[in-house]
Design goal:
Structural class: mainly alpha
Order of helices and strands: EEEEHEHHHHHHHHHHHHHHHHHHHHH
Number of helices: 22
C-alpha cells in the first residue's frame, strides 16, 4: 500500500476522496473509507499496532504473537512464507489507523490490555525478538560466558578424575572380580571379596587368609563351617550376611556388582539405558525396574530412598537388608515421592553412596535438583497458559515416545562400539548438569519465552 506524504497527508483512497489537505471541505470521515483495507486477516477487525511481514501482509501485532506462540513457526499466517529477522510495527500504517479509526483502535487496545493471555503472548514475542536480535558477542557475555567457563573447568576436572580412575587400575580390579568365575578365584581375591562386604569383616579376614581359602573352598563353606574353627564367626548376624552374599555368588557365578563402576562394567548397556531413562522419564523407569528388576535393583533402591528401622543388625550386608519386603510406611513414603518428586528419590539414592562415589554422587544430586526445577517450570507453564487439560495427552505421547526409544536402544545396542557407549555414559553423568544449569537460568530469567 503506497501513501502520498505531501502536506503531511495520509493518502488518497480508492474512492477518490483525498484528505490531509488545507481545504476545510476535505475533512476525512470513517464512513467514506473502506475498512477492508485496514483490517487484519487473522481477527478481521481494524489493525492494532499493524505489523508488516516480509511477504507484505499486515496483521495486528497481538494476532501475530498469538499465531507464533501456538504454531511455533516463523511464517505468515496467510501465505505461509517465512519471515526474515523479527517483524516490526509499521509506524506509518499505525498512525493512519489511529487517525482514521481512533475510537475502534482505543477500544481494542483496552480489550487487549485487559486480556492477560494476550499480554503474555506479546511479552513472549518481544522477548523472542530481543533474543533473536542479540549479537553473537553479547551472547557470550554475562551468564552464558560464565557457564561456558564453568563447563570448560568441569570438563578438565572430569577428564583428570577419569584419567586417574583408569590409571589407578581400580576399574580393572573390579572388572576382574565381576567377570572371573568364582571357582577360579585366588585366596587374595577371596579376601578382597570379603573386604567389600563391609568394615565388620576385618575380624575374619585373617583366618581366611591363613587358611588360603580360594574360590572352590569358598563355595563349599556353610553355616557350620563358618561357626567352627578356624573361621569362628560366632556372631549370627555376621554369618547370615556372609552366607547371603555367598548365595549371590553361587547364583551369579561371579562377584555381584557393589558400586556404580562395577554395575556399569557388569551391565554396560543396562547402565547406559538407566542413566538416560532416569533423566528423561524417572517415573516410567522406576516402574520398569519394579516390573522387570524387582529384587536386584528396585528393592535396594526403595530401601535406600525410604529406609526404615528393621530388626536386622546394622552390621549385616547391604544386600541382606535390601531384600526385606518394604513396610506399608515405606510404600506410602515411596509412592508420594514417586508421584510428586521422583528426582528426589534419585538424589537420596546418590546421597547414600556419597562415601563411595564422592564427586559422582554430587553430580547426580545437582542434576536431580535441576531436573526437578525444569519439571516444575514445565508444569507451571501448562497451568498458567490454561493448557493443563492437555497433560493426559502429553503423558500418553511421552509414554509411547519412551517406549519406542527403549525398543530402538535394545535393537541397536549390540552394534554400538563400547567406546561410544562410554563417551555417552560419562557425558550424561558429568556434563549434563552443566547444560541443565543453563536451561534453568533461561527458565527463571525468561519463563515466558519457553515453548509450553
Amino acid at each position: 500500500m503506497e501513501w502520498d506524504s505531501e502536506d503531511d497527508g495520509v493518502g488518497v483512497l480508492q474512492d477518490g476522496h483525498s484528505f490531509g489537505s488545507d481545504s476545510p471541505d476535505s475533512k476525512p470521515t470513517t464512513s467514506s473509507i473502506s475498512e477492508n483495507e485496514f483490517s487484519c486477516h487473522c481477527c478481521y477487525d481494524i489493525l492494532v499496532n499493524p505489523t508488516t511481514l516480509t511477504c507484505g501482509h499486515n496483521f495486528c501485532r497481538h494476532c501475530l504473537a498469538l499465531w507464533w506462540e501456538s504454531s511455533h513457526k516463523n511464517e505468515c499466517p496467510e501465505c505461509r512464507e517465512k519471515w526474515e529477522g523479527f517483524p516490526k510495527i509499521n509506524i506509518l500504517l499505525r498512525d493512519a489507523t489511529d487517525k482514521l479509526f481512533s475510537e475502534v483502535v482505543q477500544r481494542r487496545r483496552a480489550e487487549i490490555q485487559a486480556n492477560p493471555k494476550i499480554s503474555r503472548s506479546l511479552l513472549a514475542f518481544q522477548r523472542y525478538g530481543d533474543n533473536l536480535g542479540r549479537s553473537k558477542t553479547n551472547q557470550h557475555k554475562g551468564a552464558g560466558f560464565f557457564f561456558s567457563g564453568v563447563l570448560t573447568a568441569l570438563t578438565c576436572v572430569a577428564v583428570m578424575v577419569l584419567v586417574y580412575h583408569w590409571g589407578s587400575g581400580v576399574m580393572e580390579q573390579h572388572e576382574l572380580l565381576i567377570s572371573k568365575p568364582v571357582s577360579h578365584w585366588t585366596p587374595e581375591e577371596v579376601v578382597s571379596w570379603l573386604e567389600h562386604l563391609g568394615p565388620w569383616t576385618e575380624l575374619y579376614r585373617e583366618p581366611f587368609h591363613k587358611e588360603n581359602v580360594n574360590g572352590r573352598l569358598l563355595l563349599m563353606l556353610g553355616d557350620e563351617e563358618l561357626l567352627n574353627s578356624p573361621y569362628s564367626i560366632e556372631n549370627q548376624a555376621h554369618r547370615r550376611a556372609v552366607l547371603a552374599e555367598l548365595d549371590r555368588v553361587k547364583t551369579l557365578g561371579v562377584k555381584p556388582p557393589q558400586n556404580l563402576w562395577e554395575y556399569k562394567a557388569a551391565n554396560a548397556g543396562k547402565a547406559l539405558f538407566l542413566l538416560y531413562a532416569l533423566k528423561r522419564s524417572p517415573r516410567l523407569t522406576i516402574f520398569y525396574l519394579y516390573l522387570f528388576d524387582y529384587s536386584e535393583t528396585f528393592l535396594p533402591f526403595l530401601h535406600t530412598c525410604c529406609p526404615v528401622v528393621s530388626h536386622v543388625a546394622k552390621s549385616e550386608s547391604r544386600f541382606l537388608n535390601s531384600q526385606l519386603e518394604p513396610s506399608w510406611r515405606q510404600w506410602a513414603e515411596f509412592l508420594v515421592k514417586y508421584c510428586v518428586l521422583p528426582y528426589q528419590l534419585i538424589a537420596e539414592f546418590a546421597w547414600d553412596w556419597l562415601a563411595v562415589h564422592y564427586w559422582t554422587s554430587r553430580f547426580i544430586i545437582v542434576n536431580a535438583m535441576l531436573l526437578s526445577v525444569l519439571e516444575g517450570c514445565a508444569l507451571w507453564r501448562l497451568w498458567t497458559t490454561a493448557r493443563i487439560r492437555t497433560l493426559p495427552q502429553k503423558m500418553w505421547n511421552h509414554f509411547w515416545k519412551m517406549l519406542s526409544q527403549g525398543f530402538a536402544f535394545a535393537l541397536l545396542w549390540p552394534f554400538v562400539p563400547q567406546f561410544v557407549c562410554n563417551c555417552l555414559f560419562y557425558w550424561a553423568l558429568y556434563f549434563s548438569p552443566i547444560i541443565n544449569i543453563d536451561l534453568v537460568v533461561q527458565q527463571l530469567m525468561h519463563p515466558e519465552t519457553q515453548a509450553p
